UniProtKB/TrEMBL annotation:
This is Fe2OG dioxygenase domain-containing protein. InterPro entries: DIOX_N, IPNS-like_FE2OG_OXY, IPNS-like_sf, Oxoglu/Fe-dep_dioxygenase_dom, Plant_2OG-oxidoreductases. SUPFAM superfamilies: Clavaminate synthase-like. Belongs to the iron/ascorbate-dependent oxidoreductase family. PANTHER family: OXOGLUTARATE/IRON-DEPENDENT DIOXYGENASE. It catalyses: jasmonate + 2-oxoglutarate + O2 = (1R,2R)-12-hydroxyjasmonate + succinate + CO2. Keywords: Dioxygenase, Iron, Jasmonic acid signaling pathway, Metal-binding, Oxidoreductase, Plant defense. GO terms for molecular function: dioxygenase activity; jasmonic acid hydrolase; metal ion binding; oxidoreductase activity, acting on paired donors, with incorporation or reduction of molecular oxygen. GO terms for biological process: defense response; negative regulation of defense response to insect; regulation of defense response to fungus; regulation of jasmonic acid mediated signaling pathway.
Length: 360
């Protein structure tokens, strides 16, 4: 049988573990020493370092010099950090608040309601508690809900929660707004890379672009120093727009040997480059490793919106960016094939995109 058809072990909901009031976390969640967060050490100096915060409204300023300065700031953030936050992005703050609330309510539903959406590794759609199908693997301290938004052919609202009542409608409205925002950013990235404005959009499949959403729920953890809410990974897809609670930090971004804890800005989206844009840009832009830490005082909710190439299209370095001096670093591969790695092995830093690099 295909190893991706079913989970290798019974699924335990992290939320129910957390609610049971245990004081020690089960061994399956205890990470090897090297992977544990160092919560007690002082943060590496300078403590104030943070990913760039960019005012997106300036991209549409009537002043040409402000527009191009903003594009340059985005370009630098893409190549130096692989991560930035955007404010004045055009998505209604009210909508952002409502969708956060509705997903919080979803996770507060009785477990039978949520179990109706229990997922399998065949598509990962639905209510899940692990990423990866290897028996005995260490697990992360989180539950999630994963759904397909685009292309239309993969969208099945019956697989989205029917409760709370406004959930499906809000997801549809939110997705619609975020697809528009992603489309704008894709144009900026294309031009910044020296490509035609619609290059990346076309490479992702044009109208057949894919998008999915993963709502992450990180319950309180009695021993946050021993585990992670989400292990180190780079996002396998194109680009991610993350919206999280602004009163609980958790996301950490790799910066050299350090981990920088992102300070959430209210109503901002955290934007990050995924492996497919690293590949298309022939590594001009890098997908950057990130992970999530948990804490004993507060649960945390985040909405990750993944804007991806259509799964059936071959993705390879843009020929415009390949020269004799900078040969293509990656072979062509569809995203459907590419994403099988993380779906099988779970989050493993940047090992997949690194391993793909063709030898020269
Ligand atoms: C993800 C992710 C970060 C967060 O879902 O891929 O990196 O803060 N989430 O939840
Ligand atoms: Ni991620």
């Amino acid at each position: 049988m295909n190893s991706l058809q079913s989970w290798p072990e019974p699924i335990i909901r992290v939320q129910s573990l957390s609610d049971s009031g245990l004081t020690f976390i089960p061994d399956q969640y205890v990470k090897p020493l090297a992977d544990r967060p160092s919560l007690t050490e002082p943060p590496p100096p300078p403590a104030e370092i943070n990913i760039p915060v960019i005012d997106l409204s300036q991209l549409f300023s009537p002043d040409r010099s402000i527009r191009s300065a903003t594009a340059r700031v985005i370009s630098r953030a893409c190549s130096e950090w692989g991560f930035f936050q955007v404010v004045n992005h055009g998505v209604s703050h009210e909508l952002m608040k409502r969708i956060r609330e509705v997903w919080r309510e979803f996770f507060e539903l009785p477990s039978e309601e949520k179990q109706a959406y229990a997922n399998s590794p065949a598509t990962y759609e639905g209510y899940g508690s692990r990423l990866g199908v290897e028996k005995g693997m260490k697990l992360d301290w989180s539950d999630y809900f994963f759904l397909h938004y685009l292309p239309e052919s993969l969208r099945d609202q019956n697989k989205w929660p029917s409760l709370p009542l406004s959930c499906r409608e809000l997801v549809a409205e939110y997705g619609n707004e975020l697809v528009k925002l992603c489309g704008k950013l894709m144009k900026v990235f294309s031009v910044n890379l020296g490509l035609e404005e619609d290059y990346l959009g076309k490479a992702f499949g044009g109208e057949e672009v894919a998008a999915c959403m993963r709502v992450n729920f990180y319950p309180k953890c009695p021993q946050p120093d021993l585990t992670l809410g989400l292990s180190s990974h780079s996002d396998p897809g194109g680009m991610t727009l993350l919206h999280s609670d602004d009163h609980v930090a958790g996301l950490q971004v790799r910066r050299g040997d350090d981990w920088v804890t992102v300070k959430p800005v209210p109503n901002a989206f955290i934007v990050n480059i995924g492996d497919q844009i690293q590949i298309l840009s022939n590594a001009t832009y890098k997908s950057v490793e990130h992970r999530v830490i948990v804490n004993s005082a507060k649960e945390r909710l985040s909405l990750a919106f993944f804007y991806n190439p259509n799964g059936n299209i071959l993705i390879e370095p843009a020929s415009e960016l390949v020269t004799e001096d900078s040969p293509a670093l990656y072979p062509a591969m569809t995203f459907n094939k590419y994403r099988l790695f993380i779906r099988t092995k779970g989050p493993r830093g940047k090992s997949q995109v690194e391993a793909l690099k063709s030898p020269h």
